[in-house]
Write a structure and sequence with these properties.
Pfam families: Cyt_bd_oxida_I. It is found in: Cell inner membrane. InterPro entries: Cyt-d_ubiquinol_oxidase_su_1. It is an enzyme of class 1 (oxidoreductase). With 434 residues, the protein is mostly helical. It has one domain. It is 71% helix and 8% strand. The protein has 14 helices and eight strands. Helix 2 runs antiparallel to helix 3 and helix 11 runs antiparallel to helix 13. It is globular and about 65 Å long.
C-alpha cells in the first residue's frame, strides 16, 4: 500500500460515508417545508405533528452530515496538495462560495427554525424552513458544480503550470454541471421519499397512527413518483452527454470494447479487463447502445480498445455499479407507480407496505453506486483529460495517511452508529400524542 492508494481509499471512505446523510438533508428539508406550509395554511394539528416528527429525524441526520462534510474538505489540503495547487484558482473558489454563501446560510436558518417556534408566526416559521431547503439546495449546486468541473473542465487557461479561471460563467452554467445537479438532486429526493414511505409503512403495518402515517406516505409517494420518472429521463440525457464528453467512462459503463455502428447493449456481461473483452455476454440487443448514446441506432460508438490502456477506467466495477444503479432506478419507478394505484388502500395491502419498509436501504445503495460510476469511471484522471490522479496526491509519509485513515474509519463509524441509532429510535417511537 502506497500513499496514493491510501489517500484514494481515505477520500473514498469519507465521501461515501458523508453521502449517506446528504441526500436525506436535501429531500427531507423540502418535505418538512411542505408539511409545515400545509399547517400554516390550514391550521390542522396533524400537519404540525408531521412537521415536528419528521424534522426530528431531519435534524439528527443534518448534524451527522455537517460533521463529516467539514472534515472531508480538509483532505484537499492534507492528502491532495498537488491537486489543490494546480486547480485551486477554480476549485477553491467554488468551495469558498459554497461555504460562505450556502453552508452558513443553511446553518443560520436552521438555528432560527429550531429556536423560533414560539417567536415567529406559523407562516413566517414555515417560510424559514423553505429557506433551509433553499440553502441546502444551493450548497449542493456549488459542490456539484465543482465536481462537474473535474468531470468536464471548461472556462480555464493554463498559466505558470496551473489551471487558472478564465470564465466563471462557463464553469457554473456548463451543461454537464446542470445535468449532474438534476441527476444527484433527483436521487436525493427519491431517497427521502422512500425514507418517509418506509417508516410510514412500518407504523401502518402495526396499525399505529394510521391517519398520520397515511398522509405522510401519500405525500412522499407523489414526491418519489415524480422524481423517479425524472431520474430515468435525465439519466438518458446524461448518458448521451457522456458519449461526447467522457467516452471512456461510457464505454466502461457498458463494457463496450469494439468501436462499431449499431452498437449493442447486453442484458448482462462480465467484463474481463485483462483480456480486453467480455468473458460473458448474454442477449445482445443490436443498436440500443448507439440509440442511447447518439439517439440513432446506426451511430458509431467508440470502444475501449480505441483508447490507450493507461487511459481506461476500471471496467468491471464501473459496469456493475452502473447497471445495478439503472436496475434500481427502474425499480423505484415501478414500486411508486404501484403505490399510486394503491394510495387509498394502503391498509389493505400489507405486502406492499412490507415491500416499502424493506426498500428503505435501496436508494442509499443507488446513490453510492452513482458516485462509484462518477468517480471510478473518471479514472485515471482526477480532472478529466487535464490532470491524472497519480500526479495529484501530497508527498507525505505512508504512515501518516494510514494513521489518519484508521482514525477516520473509527470516528466516522462511531458517528454513523450514533446517528443511525437515534434516527431508528425516534422513527420507531412515532409522533408525540395530539
Amino acid at each position: 500500500m502506497d500513499v496514493l492508494f491510501l489517500s484514494r481509499l481515505q477520500f473514498a471512505a469519507a465521501t461515501f460515508f458523508h453521502f449517506l446523510f446528504v441526500p436525506l438533508t436535501l429531500g427531507l428539508s423540502i418535505l418538512v417545508a411542505i408539511m409545515e406550509t400545509k399547517y400554516a395554511r390550514t391550521g390542522e394539528e396533524i400537519y404540525l405533528r408531521m412537521t415536528k416528527f419528521w424534522s426530528k429525524l431531519f435534524l439528527v441526520n443534518f448534524a451527522v452530515g455537517i460533521v463529516t462534510g467539514i472534515t472531508l474538505e480538509f483532505q484537499f489540503g492534507t492528502n491532495w496538495s498537488r491537486y489543490s495547487s494546480f486547480v485551486g484558482d477554480i476549485f477553491g473558489s467554488l468551495l469558498a462560495i459554497e461555504a460562505t454563501a450556502a453552508f452558513f446560510l443553511e446553518s443560520t436558518f436552521i438555528g432560527v427554525w429550531v429556536f423560533g417556534w414560539k417567536k415567529l408566526s406559523a407562516k413566517a416559521h414555515a417560510f424559514v424552513m423553505w429557506l433551509v431547503a433553499f440553502a441546502s439546495t444551493l450548497s449542493a449546486i456549488w459542490i456539484l458544480t465543482a465536481n462537474a468541473w473535474m468531470q468536464h473542465p471548461v472556462g480555464y487557461v493554463l498559466k505558470n503550470g496551473r489551471a487558472e479561471l478564465e470564465s466563471f460563467a462557463d464553469v457554473v452554467f456548463q451543461g454537464f454541471a446542470v445535468l449532474e445537479f438534476i441527476h444527484t438532486a433527483s436521487a436525493a429526493y427519491i431517497l427521502s421519499a422512500f425514507f418517509v414511505m418506509g417508516i410510514s409503512a412500518y407504523h401502518l403495518l402495526k396499525k399505529q397512527h394510521v391517519e398520520f402515517f397515511s398522509k405522510s406516505f401519500r405525500m412522499a409517494l407523489v414526491f418519489g413518483l415524480i422524481f423517479s420518472v425524472l431520474e430515468v429521463v435525465e439519466g438518458h440525457l446524461h448518458g448521451s452527454d457522456l458519449a461526447e464528453k467522457q467516452p471512456t467512462k461510457l464505454a466502461a459503463m457498458e463494457a463496450h470494447w469494439q468501436t462499431m455502428t449499431y452498437a449493442p447493449k447486453y442484458l448482462f456481461a462480465w467484463p474481463d479487463q485483462q483480456m480486453e473483452k467480455n468473458s460473458i455476454e448474454i442477449i445482445p440487443i443490436p443498436g440500443v447502445l448507439s440509440l442511447l448514446a447518439k439517439h440513432t441506432p446506426s451511430a458509431e460508438v467508440k470502444g475501449l480498445k480505441d483508447f490507450p490502456k493507461e487511459d481506461r477506467p476500471p471496467v468491471l466495477i464501473t459496469y456493475l455499479s452502473f447497471n445495478l444503479m439503472v436496475g434500481l432506478g427502474f425499480y423505484f419507478v415501478l414500486v411508486t407507480l404501484i403505490g399510486w394505484l394503491k394510495r387509498n388502500k394502503l391498509m389493505e395491502s400489507p405486502w406492499y407496505l412490507k415491500l416499502m419498509l424493506y426498500s428503505i436501504p435501496l436508494p442509499y445503495i443507488a446513490c453510492e453506486l452513482g458516485w462509484t460510476v462518477a468517480e471510478v469511471g473518471r479514472q485515471p484522471w482526477i480532472v478529466y483529460g487535464l490532470m491524472k490522479t497519480a500526479d495529484a496526491f501530497s508527498p507525505i509519509a505512508t504512515s501518516q495517511v494510514l494513521t489518519s485513515l484508521v482514525a477516520f474509519i473509527l470516528v466516522y463509524g462511531l458517528l454513523g452508529a450514533v446517528g443511525f441509532y437515534l434516527i431508528i429510535k425516534n422513527a420507531k417511537q412515532g409522533p408525540n400524542p395530539a
